[in-house]
């Protein structure tokens, strides 16, 4: 299975994750993301790049289309780690 195929297969889970993230404050999201990336880094470092791409997709979906929100996200430190 290619990474692209896996990403497509994971669309329902990525969508659920994005909906939950949308409910979080910027501070809570940053904390959640950092904790999750740390867990992945320890438990399955080979998957870290894939997980970072998922966060990139979610952040683009939630904030990428709106310049004001994107700037707010960047100023709050919600950049890809």
Overall geometry:
globular
Strand tally is: 0
Class computed from helices, strands and strand pairing: mainly alpha
* C-alpha termini separation: 26 Å
Give the low-pLDDT segments. Answer: none
Largest sheet: none
Mean pLDDT metric: 85
Q: Please give the radius of gyration in angstroms.
A: 13 Å
Q: What is the succession of H and E elements?
A: HHHHH
Summed up, the helix count is 5
The helix content is over 70%
Task: Note the beta-strand portion.
Answer: under 5%
Description:
With 81 residues, the chain is mostly helical. It has five helices and no strands. The termini are far apart.
Question: Could you provide a short overview of the structure?
Answer:
The protein has 81 residues and is mainly alpha-helical. It has helices at residues 3-9, 11-22, 26-43, 48-64, 67-75.
Mind sketching the topology for me?
Elements: H1 3-9, H2 11-22, H3 26-43, H4 48-64, H5 67-75
Helix pairs in contact: 2-4, 3-4, 4-5
């Amino acid at each position: 299975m290619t990474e692209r195929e896996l990403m497509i297969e994971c669309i329902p889970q990525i969508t659920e994750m994005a909906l939950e993230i949308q409910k979080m404050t910027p501070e809570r999201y940053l904390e959640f993301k950092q904790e999750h990336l740390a867990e992945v880094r320890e438990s399955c470092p080979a998957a870290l790049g894939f997980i970072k791409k998922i966060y990139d997709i979610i952040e683009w979906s939630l904030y990428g289309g709106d310049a004001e929100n994107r700037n707010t996200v960047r100023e709050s430190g919600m950049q890809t780690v």
